[in-house]
Amino acid sequence: MYIEQNREITGFDLSNIPRVLGNYRQGDYQVVPMIYHGTSRHRAASGSVFALRLHDVVDFSQAKLRYSTREALTAAFKIDVSAKIVLSGVDHDERIEPWWTLQDRRTSILDDLRELGIDLVTAPNFSLLLDKPRTDDLHAIKRIAIVWREFEQSGIACALHVNSRTLHDFERWSRFIQERDEIGIISYEFITGAGKRARRQFHIDGLSRIAQQSGRPLDIVVRGDPDVVTQLRQSFRRVVYIDTMAYMKTIKRRRASRSGNAKLGWHPVKTATPAELDDLLDHNLSEQTLFLRDRFYDQAKASI
């Protein structure tokens, strides 16, 4: 197993990842709502930027995109054709590991993704696990770096997902980023291990060190617990938060209701037509975005 892993990624060292020019340009968005599908809706959701899941756009079993044009993609998810699109590589292992098994077939998929005009993608978060040999972690880290480079080489701006389990992991990523000024944005998730209260600060501190040691302004894309945004904003130029709450509450027929700036309640409602769900989604997207901006960002400078 060890020999196979080592050969597959040309060693665990990150230094042999080829350099790229870098495609990332700082965006004008901070809160990005995620859309899971367009079912039970009639019209495009209101908004200028949306997140989609990588595995919802790529058919891994067929090694091709599920949608051949941007118009087909935006129609399927019922978002405006002119909206910016962020693809999130954060997902469960069974939904993201197949990206690696595509091997050289990823090249044509990446070419097609570029043609869709994707604004940003976050590299797949291949898992680091406690109950596996340490070499499995090193294998996952190197694979993240490899696929990040593939996205960038194909002309797609990609946030490097600096998945880490130990202080040494953060230090390795920090050196990698220091040496490569083409990296302008990274990503992280606070859903599973890093989302646990006992470990959250460790991961925030590790990310902050990466930003401080990079020698230049860095941006970060975050999924999971929004409470981390405030601290990360102290170290990063821009924190982009991908929100799943507004959409999930909508499909469960819950309506956002503000209770001051510190709380947003979700109350059950009944819908009889798709048009009512469209209205509910627009309401929830607006309220959740405003709530997150008021609580975690400087509203005067934030944009949806």
Q: Can you describe this structure?
A:
By secondary structure, the chain is of the alpha/beta class. It has helices at 2-8, 54-57, 70-77, 93-101, 106-115, 134-153, 167-178, 197-213, 228-232, 245-251, 274-296; strands spanning 31-33, 49-53, 58-59, 64-65, 84-88, 120-122, 158-161, 185-190, 219-224, 238-243, 254-258, 264-268. The strands form 3 sheets. It has an 8-stranded parallel sheet. It has a two-stranded antiparallel sheet with strand order 3-4. Helix 7 runs parallel beside helix 8 and helix 10 (245-251) runs antiparallel to helix 11 (274-296). The model is unreliable at 300-304 (pLDDT under 50).
Strand content: 15-25%
For the biggest sheet, the summary is:
8 strands, parallel
Helical stretch tally = 11
State Rg: 19 Å
Helix content: 40-55%
Regions with pLDDT < 50 over 5+ consecutive residues? 300-304
- Total DSSP E strands: 12
> Roughly what is the average pLDDT, rounded to an integer?
93
What order do the helices and strands follow?
HEEHEEHEHHEHEHEHEHEHEEH
Strand order of the largest sheet: 1-10-9-8-7-6-5-2
Distance between the termini: 46 Å
> Structural class of the secondary elements?
alpha/beta
